[in-house]
Amino acid sequence: MEILSTKRLSNGILERRFTVPGATGPVPGALWTREGGSGPVPLILLGHGGGGSKDAPNNLDSRDYFTGERGIGTAAIDGPAHGDRGPVTAVSHPAYAEMWQRPTAHDDMNADWRATLGALLALGEFDPQGVGYYGLSMGTMFGLPYLAAEPRISVAVLGLCGLRGPAIVLSGIGGRLAVDAPRVTCPLMYHVQWDDERFDRDGALELYGMLGAADKRLQSTPGPHGGITAEARDALRAFIAGRLAAVPAAV
Fold first, then answer.
1. What is the C-alpha separation between 63 and 69, in angstroms, rounded?
2. Centroid of chain to Cα 152
3. Between β-strands 26-34 and 13-21, what pairing exists: parallel, antiparallel or unpaired?
4. Triad 95, 101, 103: Cα angle to 5°
């Protein structure tokens, strides 16, 4: 891991920008920790949505909730062709569809997340038994296959995704999600927007049913893909924070 910069934010959060060697080149990321913390603390990996980046507003809101308010470390990386890795700033950008046409897209992102988590744990600041993953929409499109292959994640939040719908037609990943879902066994909470225009509701519920976790719960609220409420997001964040708080601290 190469630390590129260190910055102290106004809310008591220490921000470190970094890169790690990834599957197709350097992976840009950001790590946020609360100043003055002691001992290994839990860590949550934040997966951003399509057209976003590691600095997407929802990621920064999650950072403030987890790190600023609860002292849980958070980290995010740019997805392929997103943020510092490419031109995509909206799912309508041609490079977004091109990203999914690469047959190794998921495996490359899996490798990027594995390298990132390995480098973060090597810092010695985080509890290896208390690592979570939080990612909705594209954060699930990439995150679900990652969780299926990553035993170090102990709890997760997924959602705004499914097996059918326009987003699946564009990405062509329905088959991969169906194969990987039974391999996701960590406790998790899954969110479905009832009127999601990008993912078919029945396909979203079917994907939830295929997840292999014995401990899983479903949350759904009315509205379109981008209409998830602050209350619903807080419920998702409270779930993962609560589970990590219950993990015995590493010594």
1. 9
2. 14
3. antiparallel
4. 135
Sheet holding 41-47, edge to edge: 2-8, 13-21, 26-34, 73-77, 41-47, 126-135, 155-159, 188-193, 216-221
Question: Which two three-digit tokens encode residue 173?
Answer: 């990943």
For the whole model, what pTM was predicted?
A: 0.96
For domain 2-245, which CATH number applies: 3.90.1150.190, 3.40.50.1820, 3.90.215.10, 3.40.50.2300? 3.40.50.1820
Tell me the domain boundaries of the chain: 2-245
| pLDDT tens sequence for the chain (251 residues) | 999 999 999 889 999 999 999 989 999 999 999 988 777 999 999 999 999 999 999 999 999 999 999 999 999 999 999 999 999 999 999 999 999 999 999 999 999 999 999 999 999 999 999 999 999 999 999 999 999 999 999 999 999 999 999 999 999 999 999 999 999 999 999 999 999 999 999 999 999 999 999 999 999 999 999 999 999 999 999 999 999 987 765 54
